[in-house]
Amino acid sequence: MATQRTLIQSVSRALALLDAVGGSARPVTAKCLARQSGLALPTAYHLLRTLVHDGYLAREEGGYVLGDRALSLAGGRAVGMHPAHAHQVLEHLRDELHAPAYLSVLDDGEIRLADVADSRSCPRVDMWVGFHHAAHATALGKAVLSTLPDRARRDYVAAHELADLTPHTVTSPPRLLRELDSGSDVALDREEFAVGTACVAVAVPSPTVAAAVAVSVRADQLGRVLERGDAIRRAARLIAYAGAGERPDPPVTI
């Protein structure tokens, strides 16, 4: 009883809302959050406004998502979390954009494909060349490299041959480094890995794991996916919050 009397009810309610948003792979409406948390709708709205104002939540079309402050607090959880939540996020991204979704990570100095959510109607790209030889030609690889300090990025490029995979592949180290240093939060593969295929990737905003989320489409569908870049950013934020930066065990067969 003494412990219960010291609890601050509004804090517990706010944390319940954060948990509900963090556990969803898509934006959640205020009405849904109020129902899940057992709160009156006016109370939920009041708490949600406060959480958005303080940066713990953000308002997007369709509902609420985690904000930057919640993600920064979650950074320390990035290693060791079960990958099931990450796969759920990828599946939702696949269904939302009608395109296969991917997660890559930097693992012991190499960029690896960690997970894929595809389907018969959204088949994955044929990874005919492993990431060890092709990260420079993929949006996933570029997004991961863009998270590294300048020296580490240069060391990676110097240690890996930039194989010429298609007529569009960037094989010049200075040109690749300039692209990685562009400041854009979106990495692109315009038929650089496979002719006829484009890919859009966003780095997972984690201070402890270098990872990226991407979708691939036919090259003529690139504009459609770029218009939905917020969906890829949201997926990357959710994976950061879940601490799902580690690759599954066993790793994906490609």
TrEMBL record:
Which SMART domains does this UniProt record tie to the protein?
A: HTH_ICLR (SM00346)
Per UniProt, residues of the HTH iclR-type domain are 8-68
Give residue ranges for domain IclR-ED.
Answer: 69-245
Q: Which SUPFAM superfamilies match?
A: GAF domain-like, Winged helix' DNA-binding domain
Q: For this UniProt record, give its keywords in alphabetical order, as a comma-separated list.
A: DNA-binding, Transcription, Transcription regulation
One family name in Pfam for this protein? IclR_C
Q: What's an example of a GO molecular-function annotation for this chain?
A: DNA binding
Checking InterPro entries in the record gives: GAF-like_dom_sf, HTH_MetabolicPath_Reg, Tscrpt_reg_IclR_C, Tscrpt_reg_IclR_N, WH-like_DNA-bd_sf, WH_DNA-bd_sf
List the protein's name: DNA-binding IclR family transcriptional regulator
